Amino acid sequence: MTAPLLQARGLVQEYATARSFFGKTSTVRAVDGIDLTVRQGEILGIVGESGSGKSTLGRMLLGLETPAGGEVLYQGAPMPAPRTDAWRKLRAQMQLIFQDPLAALDRRMTIAAQIAEPLEIHGIAKGAEAAERLAALMARVGLRRDQADRYPHELSGGQRQRVVIARALATNPGFLVCDEPVSALDVSIQAQVVNLLRDLQEQEGLTMVFISHDLKVVRNICDRVAVMYLGRVVEEAPSDLLFADPRHPYTRALVSSIPKPGQGLHGRIILQGEPPNPAARPAGCAFHPRCAFADRGCAARVPELQHDGRRQIACLKPDAAAATAA
Amino acid sequence: MTFVSIRDLRVAFDGVQVLHGVDLDIRQGEAVGLVGESGCGKSVTWLAALGLLPGKAKVSGSVRLDGQELVGAPRPAIEKVRGKRIAMIFQDPSSSLNPVQRVGKQIMESLRLHRGLKGRDARAEAIRLLDMVGIPSAATRVDLYPHEFSGGQCQRIMIAMALAGEPDLLIADEPTTALDATIQAQILDLLGTIRRETGMAMVFISHDLGAVSVVCDRAVVMYAGRIVEANNIRSLFSAPRHPYTAGLFAAIPDIDADRGRLVPIHGTVPDPKNLPTGCAFSPRCPRATAFCQTDRPHLRPQSGGGDVACFQPVAAPKAFPALRQEALA
Amino acid sequence: MLNFLLSRLARAFLTIMLVMTFAFVVLRLSGDPAMVMLGPDAPKDAVDAFRARWGLNDPIWQQYLAYLTQILTFDFGVSMRDQSPAIDLVLERIPATLALTIPALILKVGIGIPAGVYAALHRESIADRGVIMMSIFGFTIPSFVLGLVLVLIFAVTLDWLPSGGQDTWRHAILPIATMSVGGIGILARFSRSAMIEVLGQPYIRTAMAKGLPWRDVVWKHALRNAAVPIVTLVGFMVGALIAGAVVVESIFSWPGVGRLIVVSVSNRDLAVVQCLLLVIASSMVIANLFVDLAYGLLDPRLRHKSAAH
Q1: Greatest alpha-carbon span in chain C
Q2: Which fold is adopted by the domain C93-302?
Q3: Of A99, A321, B158, B282, which has the maximum CB count within 10 A?
């Protein structure tokens, strides 16, 4: 097993909401105690529905948000405080790619200028060397040389995402967080970008956290997957194992919700109830109101994430769930 | 029995043609999937049919509903069709409901319009509809505003509103795209149940081929403003004939297979202002010949069933591969 | 709801206090009322007596405290000029100003909003282009220019209307017209864009898709949603009912609040200026309060902690 590149310990994030003039502020816990290890060279998938806290987690892993509790260790060292020199230096090594490439790009700059910008900011290359590096980056992500002087709006969605990826790669980062990077793209283009990210992992040993609600894409690109529900990890396992044999009742419903040709509407687990709301967290296991196997104990006790062979699972009644799975 | 019949439907915005002659029949009670990537014209087809496009759109061709022509029909005539004969629900349920009106009132508006229900009767029926689409404690929540419901619940309310007119056909335009996976499953399940119970026909517009495959009887694949393939779900998914359809299937990761590399369709969707000559898919097509770049194929019935618009279709399998066949049985 | 109201009232009170304090300090730093009232050649003991009489020799914080205690007992001081209570001087001017600003507001709302909505509903038509052009003209032309042009045409050249004074209703026509044009232009422009924005929303498409006649789509769904931003702007106009006529009153020598502001400021008549500012600030703050309440009525999303799930 390779060494951990990044470790999260007991990460908690809270946001204040509903501030009134006299009233007190109430806090919403978006991330509620997460331990996570990202190993060198792997792609770790984080899946969950809206309100699960997956994007917040991603931003904390990058040090873009300071956690309300817990810590993030990068290469064994704690994350430096925001806006210090050490923190700025770390920016070059960790990059974020998110869903909407048009929002991430400056409309008034050519794509060449945008890809080359980090080279200058971080003092990596200048002049002819920078030009050479730019050409290499563009080739790496599959952009043509003649596209260098285009503006973002002149490119298609997939090409824009390539520009964003090229810019993220400019500083030679060791760690990427991709937050729904292909969700806004059409199916045929999605596959191009997914393949590109896989190439980067395989050929350059890039370590990535891949956040997505699209389980099919996660299944394809990730080595390991963590499933989040209301700010906690409920199951974590190697991708093959998790999708072939999901154990947590929530994971099972999630995997079952993927429509498969020929299967029709039969045999799918349809979860009742609403997607989780962090502002109204149920007591005990947060999933228990929607869980078919929950009993009184589940409403009282918060299950801890526990090792079970190659997987970790946070469920008080994994056996009951497993029995119906078989 | 054919209920809606679309012939040579064309749409242009500001002189740019986006729909290039679509022929499509919807029979009573059937569920048809309309798939394709963004900009292929799948939504525009139905917005045009119902006269819901902005004024600058130029629509030509014919859309007949039980023999009544809708294209170019006077506004009151089309307004009688909307909601009553053909209802439509949309992708973004939260912003598709009027934010300043109680949801009950929005449903009652349809009930008054199409079924003449007023006052207490309308209210009772609105509550019944909300209950039917699975809104818990409908009787008390009928007076809430849209922002007090989640996205999934808003889509249920949209469906209730569409059912208010007891339509013969429901157009569901990407109804689950904006929703979370488990909520998507709920909505697909609900649409299936409603169809079983009411027998209404449905057109399910989606780029999610999986979703289409579970709720539809047959599917129509569109590319760059034209239909390129149409077939029943089983044949289409087991043996796609058009290279684009085949490419779409290959590009989607398979949840059950191992982590093989995806096979993308190279290149991008053409700009409608700048369509390639010949077959619009030819620049991206692995099977294209020189002929495909100069001549355009028409949608033709195939000997093995289904319609394909291609000069070089993927060969029809002599016998279905056993594995695939089994999975579909 | 009560909580919300209380917090808004507290904020309103704070705003008024801030305005008052600021005015108090600035007025005392910007020139000596004794010199203005008595003239630069006044004998030294006259100036000293004047300063002692009005407490101008005390340290500024003492003056401020004295002023605050006064206000809390609803004593707004007397004019340095003629010793009459400042509040009376201000209040007696208000009706004259309202006689101009209220009809002007009615014209702005009554013409501006329908014109804007009509333009939005008939986009790119000749009427739409006309409305856009007229509204640009309306809010770019300064009121002192427009006022003088109107006087030149209707009073001097045509001699249909008087050029100044307050004797009959005919005297009010030119000032009201001058005052309305800009507001009509702004409201038309604003209503048009608010309406266009709303007409592009998905819920409008939903309303059409359910078979609602176009007229009902506009009246029942579009207008109510477009009202939120428009009400904000109208709220500002209501807030400016008292203080919004300074320039126009000066052009047409209309004896309203605006004229009083100009005269009192140039005379450094401290009590009157402070009293004016208090009244003006209060009227704006109250108008704002009503706008906030109207928001809640118009848009349930802005209602403070209404019904829970």
Answers
A1: 85
A2: MetI-like fold (1.10.3720)
A3: B158
CB contact under 8 A, A21 and C11: yes
Query: What residue spans define the domains of chain C?
Result: 93-302
Residues B269 and B180 in one domain: no
Residue B50: CATH number of its domain: 3.40.50.300
Residue B178 in domain: yes
Neighbours of chain C (3+ CB pairs under 8 A): A, B
Rounded CA gap, A193 and B227, in Å?
27
Domain presence at residue B61:
yes
What is the rounded distance in angstroms from the CA atom of residue A133 to the CA atom of residue A124?
10
Mean pLDDT to the nearest integer, C32-39? 76
Which of C7, C305, C309 lies closest to A21 in CB terms?
C7
Q: Could A265 and B210 be called an inter-chain contact, meaning their C-beta atoms sit closer than 8 Å?
A: no
Q: What value does the mean pLDDT of chain B take?
A: 90
Size of interface B-C (CB pairs under 8 A): 80
d(CA C277, CA C56): 20
Cβ–Cβ gap C3/A23 under 8 Å: yes
Task: Answer whether residue A141 is part of any domain.
Answer: no
**Chain B residues with CB-CB distance to C under 8 A?**
50, 52, 55, 75-76, 79-84, 87-88, 90, 92, 95-101, 109-110, 113-114, 144-145, 147-148, 158, 161-162, 164-165
In a domain, B52, yes or no: yes
pLDDT tops 80 at residue C198: yes
Q: Mean per-residue pLDDT for C87-109?
A: 89
Do B8 and B110 have their domain in common?
yes
Number of domains in chain A: 1
Which residues on chain B are in Cβ contact (under 8 Å) with C213?
Answer: 76, 79
- Are A50 and B180 inside 8 Å of each other by CB? yes
* ipTM given for this complex: 0.88
pLDDT of residue C35: 75
- Domain coverage including residue A311: 227-326
Q: Is A183 on the interface with B (CB under 8 A)?
A: no
- Residue C166 — very low, low, confident or very high, per pLDDT cuts 50/70/90? confident
In this complex, the residue of C210, C224, C225 whose CB is nearest that of residue B110 is: C210
Substitution target in A155, A186, A193, A198 with the highest count of B β-carbons within 10 Å is A186
Residues C227 and B74: beta-carbon distance below 8 Å: no
Amino acid at A244: A
Cβ(A5)–Cβ(A207) below 8 Å = yes
Is residue B60 within 8 A of residue B18, CB to CB? The reply is: no
- pLDDT reported for residue C39: 78
B76 to C220: CB separation less than 8 angstroms, yes or no: no
- In terms of domains, do B28 and B174 share one? yes
Is residue B37 domain-shared with residue B82, that is, in the same domain? yes
Is A19 a member of any domain?
Answer: no
Distance in angstroms (rounded) separating the CA atoms of residues B232 and B250? 19
Q: Which domain holds residue B105?
A: 2-216
Structurally, chain B folds into a number of domains equal to 2
Burial class (CB in 10 A: 0-12, 13-18, 19+), A316: buried
- pTM of the predicted protein model: 0.85
State whether B77 and B201 are in the same domain: yes
Do residues B52 and B110 both lie within one domain? yes
Label residue C156 exposed, middle or buried (CB < 10 Å: 0-12, 13-18, 19+).
exposed
| Domain assignment of residue A287, yes or no | yes
Is C220 touching B (CB cutoff 8 A)? yes
Which residues in A lie closer than 8 A to residue B192 (C-beta atoms)? 265
* Nearest-5° Cα angle at A199, A194 to A200: 100
Tell me which of B216, B249, B278 is where a domain ends.
B216
Q: Does the pLDDT value for residue A25 go beyond 50?
A: yes
Q: Are C177 and C149 in contact (CB under 8 A)?
A: no
Task: Tell me if A25 is assigned to some domain.
Answer: no
Last residue in a domain, options B216, B231, B249: B216
